What does this fold into?
Amino acid sequence: MRSPSTMLCISVLASSVTVRAVGLVDALKNAGASQFASLITSDPIIASLYLSSNVGTVFAPIDSSSPSRMKRQSPEERQKLKYQSTRQTNHIGDINKPPGKPLDTNNDDANVGAGNQQKVVTNPQDGTGNSSMKRGVIGRRSNMTMPSLLNIYSGLGNNVSIIQAGIPYDGGVIHIVNDYFTLPTSLSSTASTNGQSSFNQMSKTSNMSASLDSTASITCFIPSNAAFSASNSSSYSTSSSLISGHVIPNFVGYLPSLTDGATFTTQGGTKITVTVKNGDYFINNAKIIASNQIISNGVAHVIDSVIEPKSPPLIVSAAPAQERGVMLGVWSLVFCLVASLLV
It folds into this structure.
């Protein structure tokens, strides 16, 4: 006959196995994400994705989050639902360490290089001034008093919070979040939505808006409207050179990728340097005040001043010294001639 302690161990082990064997749909319903479970099972393409090995982590919006009003099986909704999952199994302890971590999602509608998926970015310290939750949702949910375990950034720089982490299911792990991620849009649309009208206007007048929206894998530092008003942009020869001096080509610099001391060459050929001080990020002397605005072809960060091109070091020409040497030699010769005549 088994002892009570043995029976307890068997019971615990059986319970553990049962928890790990729970299917995704049942796990979502048990965690309060029934609406999300219904959405992903209503579309055969999305259901097939979520039940495959391509999903290791599910960021499931809680039922009290804003309801989806998109038509079922539309391309936009499919990308939105794909965006709520990542391929890797991301445990909370692996993604909540500063300075954060970019996560590959299953959203494949991104212009960030062949074979690369769209990303979301965790930001444990949230030191760059972004709002603490998705725009427009304050006061609309009953779960706003739930503590945030981690902020995750998506399109427009909007962020959602993990409010319950580490729910296991038979294909990976579920984190319950307080809203859906925001689908990334173009750079010009993102700047417009976020009110960066000065940058957008200058991009249009310099005929760069379309190319910035379509060029793959860029990082753009957007000066705020106040930054443009306070700047002396005469250091740039044209508006296009000013805009180009704020874009890094062929590099998607999410905040965790901007390491202290890193230097980059901008599209305009100028050099910029990243400095990190007490959790604040500076590009030359411009401070990032809103970070990780994921765009369709990279990422944008808002900065508090225009990045002025660094002046080249002053090089004193040797020509004047040589000329002085020649003149000194001439005067010495003249002096000698005069002296010889006087003798």
Remarks:
- The two ends are 135 Å apart (CA to CA).
- The chain has two domains: 9-177, 187-303.
